């Protein structure tokens, strides 16, 4: 049995996955780490980087030799929908124009609140997340 040491970039401690053979593919390493950390493959993907050379492993069929140490980061899957229910969830948002406010998800309600303040656009530009957030339903 051989092993690879991995450490999430946000954690202080490292861990180890065990496998058979002189090397493991990146796809198999990701599967082993996700299983050990109880992560679901539909929620995120893993970015794996060699801890010594800082080279990112990009090819899923690329081989990682036994005894390697890697740094792992969770990254969102592009185009994946969030599993959370945005209709019932309250969101705490802070913008530079107002204090911390609790609002129900909805772009129009927040836009109306901002426009009601009658602040110049230079002081209170429309927040970028209002223009790009696809997860908010109207």
Automatic annotation (TrEMBL):
Domain DWNN: 4-76
Alphabetized Gene3D superfamilies for the sequence: Phosphatidylinositol 3-kinase Catalytic Subunit, Chain A, domain 1
Domain of life: Eukaryota
Gene Ontology CC terms: nucleus
Cellular location(s): Nucleus
Pfam families named in the record: DWNN
Any GO molecular function: zinc ion binding
PROSITE patterns (alphabetical): DWNN
Protein name, as recorded: DWNN domain-containing protein
Provenance organism: Mola mola (Ocean sunfish)
């Amino acid at each position: 049995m051989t092993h690879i040491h991995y450490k999430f970039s946000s954690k202080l401690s490292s861990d180890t996955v065990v496998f058979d053979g002189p090397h493991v593919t990146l796809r198999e390493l990701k599967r082993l780490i996700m299983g050990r950390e109880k992560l679901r493959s539909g929620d995120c993907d893993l970015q794996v980087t060699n801890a010594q050379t800082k080279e990112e492993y990009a090819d899923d069929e690329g081989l990682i030799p036994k005894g390697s140490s890697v740094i792992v980061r969770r990254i969102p899957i592009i185009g994946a929908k969030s599993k959370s229910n945005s209709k019932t969830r309250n969101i705490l948002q802070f913008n530079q124009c107002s204090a911390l406010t609790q609002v129900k998800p909805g772009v129009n309600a927040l836009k109306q609140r901002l426009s009601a303040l009658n602040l110049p656009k230079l002081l209170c530009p429309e927040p970028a997340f209002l223009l790009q957030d696809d997860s908010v339903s109207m």
